[in-house]
Amino acid sequence: RLAVAFSAVGFVGPMIAALTGRPQSVSVMAFPAFSGGRPSGKTELVPVRLEAGSGQLMAHRVGQPGSHRLMPLLAADAVAIVPAADTPLKTGDRLEVLPFHDPEIQGVTP
After folding, report:
1. Confidence band of 74 (pLDDT split at 50, 70, 90)
2. Rounded to whole angstroms, how far apart are CA atoms 91 and 68?
3. Integer Cα distance of 64 and 105 in angstroms
4. Which of 34, 58, 74, 85 has its CA 20 to 30 A from that of 93?
5. Element at 19 (helix H, strand E)
């Protein structure tokens, strides 16, 4: 399931980095290139592909929503954290993003 994969990104990866003395990946801020409703009281982790454009980091959703879908992770290079809210997500909102690898995106201010 997707929850297991996201647990690895959020907990196992940083734990292994700490145990081996490697620097931990840091989160970055990005603008979502997607919008839509979000459940009240539930934070969502969304697989995304990061892209730099016009000096801004954009997070593009990959695949269809659903916790049972693992295929989007193959195209994703990060996970966006969509916080719980009573208002829909808009493309102008900023999201915290957990890259799978250290992002090396030129021309973007974090």
Report:
1. confident
2. 25
3. 25
4. 74
5. helix 13-20
Cβ atoms of 41 and 84 within 8 Å: the answer is yes
* Alpha carbon distances (Å) from 59 to 10, 30, 91, 109: 18, 6, 10, 14
Q: Tell me how long the chain is.
A: 110
- Quick count: other Cβ atoms within 10 Å of Cβ 22? 11
CA 8 to chain centre: 13
Mind listing the pLDDT tens digit for each residue in 7-46? 666 656 666 666 777 766 678 899 999 887 776 778 888 8
**What single letter denotes the amino acid at residue 51?**
E
One-letter identity of residue 55: G
pLDDT at 68: 57
